Amino acid sequence: MKTTYFSKIMACLAVAFFVFACSQTNTPTPTTTPVTTAEFVAQDTDFKDFRKWAVVATLAQALSADGRAHTDAARTIWINKNVSRGTTNEYPNGTIFVKEVQGSYGIVGMAKRGGTFNTTHNGWEWFKLDSDGKILNRSSSNTCNSCHAKVKNLDYAFTKP
Question: What is the CA 104 to chain-centroid distance, rounded?
């Protein structure tokens, strides 16, 4: 009886040792790295169904008497997410505005790309879109940059949600 009891204890200890030994790995403990905001590169799918996004503004004419903001025509402006400028007064990467201007101007967009893109203008990228939101042209246009730089303190967005 003593040997059976002793054998059972030894068997349990052997199993416990085996389970413990197998669960140990030689993988080093991962170190934590600071979280960085990744660069956002907009694709056609990011503009899909933009007319279903939150409307930021519907305007009957341009924002100013000089016609800036894409001619003196009626327009609707949408934003892709429910975001606001953070404590730094900047929109997060991935923020997209789309503006549809009545008449011949068409549909334009701006996306906060971030990263190393257009760093002198807070990482904004400018777009010309078709009526379905497909990208026709993308750029870091000097024309767009120079006009939107007038509201640099508002992170280059004339209209705030």
Answer: 29
Q: Please tell me the pTM assigned to this model.
A: 0.72
User: Poorest-confidence range of 1-10, 32-41, 104-113?
Assistant: 1-10
Q: How many CA atoms lie within 13 Å of 73's alpha carbon, on the beta-carbon side?
A: 12
One-letter amino acid at 126 equals W
**Distance separating alpha carbons of residues 109 and 117, to the nearest angstrom:** 16
Q: What pLDDT was estimated at residue 42?
A: 96
Both tokens assigned to 132: 């379905």
Per the CB < 8 A criterion, the answer to whether 142 and 73 are in contact is no
Compute and round to an integer the Cα radius of gyration of the chain: 28
CA dihedral 126, 130, 133, 136 (to 10 degrees): -50
- Residue 33 predicted with pLDDT over 80: no
Concatenated DSSP letters of 99-152: EEETTTTEEEEEEE--TTTTGGGTTEEEEEE-TT--EEEEE--HHHHHHHGGGG
Strands 106-112 and 124-129: antiparallel
